Amino acid sequence: MNHHETNHDVNLSQAYLQEYKHGIGVFSEKMPEVAHAFSEFSEACFKEGELSKKSKQLIALGISIVAQDEYCMIYHTKGCIDQGATEREVMEACSVAAAFGGGAALSQAATIVQDTFNDLKQH
């Protein structure tokens, strides 16, 4: 990823998020019962509990890095930002992922996550 604009208003990270949202919408139309059940389950997992929503987003970001899932890296980087995580907190979560996932995880943190954080903090 880089910081170039795909059009005047949407950067690459936002374009990925829009593509993901569109894909989920199409899946939901074709498989509404599955999409609804997954959405309810996911919402329950990410709601405030003993762990804060921010902590859960940071955990999800680390998992997505180790899983090498670009859409989830971008989605959960946005989730971290939305929950008020600082760049340092995001980078610490990436560091934990790199400790577990090695060089492949570190390369994702050094590129996709940092670019996404910068793209989305600009808006």
Structure description:
- With 123 residues, the protein is mainly alpha-helical.
- Helices cover 79% and strands 0% of the residues.
- It is built from five helices and no strands.
- Helix 1 crosses helix 2 and helix 4 crosses helix 5.
Using the CA coordinates, give the radius of gyration.
Answer: 15 Å
N- to C-terminal distance: 17 Å
Number of strands: 0
Per DSSP, what share of the residues sits in E-state strands of 2 or more residues? under 5%
Mean pLDDT: 91
Main sheet? none
Spatial shape:
globular
What structural class do the secondary elements suggest?
Answer: mainly alpha
Low-confidence stretches: 1-8
Taken in chain order, the helices and strands follow as HHHHH
Helix fraction, binned, reads: over 70%
Please tally the helical runs, counting DSSP H or I stretches of 4 or more residues.
5
SSE layout and pairings?
Layout: H1 12-30, H2 32-46, H3 53-67, H4 70-82, H5 87-121
Helix pairs in contact: 1-2, 3-4, 3-5, 4-5
